[in-house]
Amino acid sequence: MKVNKEQLEGNKVALDVEVNEEKVAEALQQAYKKIVKEVDMPGFRKGKVPRKILEQKYGKEVLHKDALDILIPQGYQEAVQESDLEPIAKPEITDVFIEEGKPATFTAEVEVKPEVELGNYTDLDVEEPNIEVTDEQIEQELEARRQRHSQLVAVDRDIVESGDFTTIDFEGKIDGEVFEGGTAEDYNLEIGSEQFIPGFEDQLVGVKVGQEVEVEVTFPESYHNDDVAGKDAVFTVTVKEIKEKEAPELDDEFAKDLEFDSLADLKDNIKEDLKEREEQRQEREYQNQLVDAVAENSEVDIPETMVENEIENMLNQFKMQAQQQGIEFEQYLQMTGMDENQLREQHREEAENRAKSNLVLEAIAEEEGIEVTEDEIDDRVADIAEQQGQDKDQIKAFLQMQGQLDSLRENLKMQKAIDFLAENN
């Protein structure tokens, strides 16, 4: 095979590829074997029509498309490897020629990863984190745990106050008609939690147990249900019960309930837990600052394709988060008050920064000869398997089948490049 590489504008490359006659003959024969299986012709059993007869009836061109479907992907991959390129998009194939007894030719134009002009990436002026856990942080965490172990108890009053936990019945109407999702019985609602639409909970403050009141509200224009969005509604509400949250005392007994010997032991545990979390958070922040500093020192033209890929990755994350919260992506967009194009533009700058950071880290890995071993791949797969409670061999087989092992390898290489920065700054 012959390959001629031509540098085009920006990060585009043209590969003029010539595949020899032998491979063309093999591809044409494979195409014939595939096509003849479906051919019915008088005087021959199905799938047994000789190639010469087939070509006489339908023309030699009948085999060209299927032969090219074999030759072009193979030829393109070999040309990419021979030219030592890293494509970032699918190629555009033009100027295709195929004829039996002659070399096949085609041109592939493709975007490749741009060259990175690395700036200084050691002895950077980035301040290392100073890990400190304050008494205030410990008390805040202690109070949070105390609140998590609080219980709801009945109150000795019958008037609703902000912060109360109420049990209510309600029926909502728009223009005098009950609407879907607007009615419930024995519904538990914390007053002031903003769980309901604006104004609903505020109008229940001061209402007595057993009292029936009318609550007038307007659904927001961005409400996830288009049938009621922007419309006025009247809810008939009855308060049936009031409870409040009662938290346990902060003493040794509370600590023992959490399986500690004393309140002092609990505080020590919280301090160590907070310190570990703060170390992880600040280490991530320190690493991000190092990468940002190197990116700032380096020069690279970021292809639009890479930016769009990063934006697409972000959108997929948003969609996954929305799904985990039990809402559709369209509802998520309504809640943000944006359409998809606006969301894409809002995250464009972040996507550009991510793309540049990735390119810079790859360049550092190449410059420093950073590689990922099979043992490191296996260790990471074992971690994933443990997190998911599955067999590591099954996880590895699944990743391989999905074509995700290469991505895993690249992610590990990126992290090793980040670790290199942390160790040398």
Automatic annotation (TrEMBL):
Top-rank taxon, per record: Bacteria
**Compartmental location:** Cytoplasm
What InterPro entries does the annotation carry? PPIase_dom_sf, PPIase_FKBP_dom, Trig_fac, Trigger_fac_C, Trigger_fac_C_sf, Trigger_fac_ribosome-bd_bac, Trigger_fac_ribosome-bd_sf, Trigger_fact/SurA_dom_sf
State what this protein does. Involved in protein export. Acts as a chaperone by maintaining the newly synthesized protein in an open conformation. Functions as a peptidyl-prolyl cis-trans isomerase.
Q: What is known of its domains?
A: Consists of 3 domains; the N-terminus binds the ribosome, the middle domain has PPIase activity, while the C-terminus has intrinsic chaperone activity on its own.
Query: HAMAP family annotated for this entry?
Result: Trigger_factor_Tig
Q: What is this protein's name?
A: Trigger factor
Q: Which organism is it from?
A: Halobacteroides halobius (strain ATCC 35273 / DSM 5150 / MD-1)
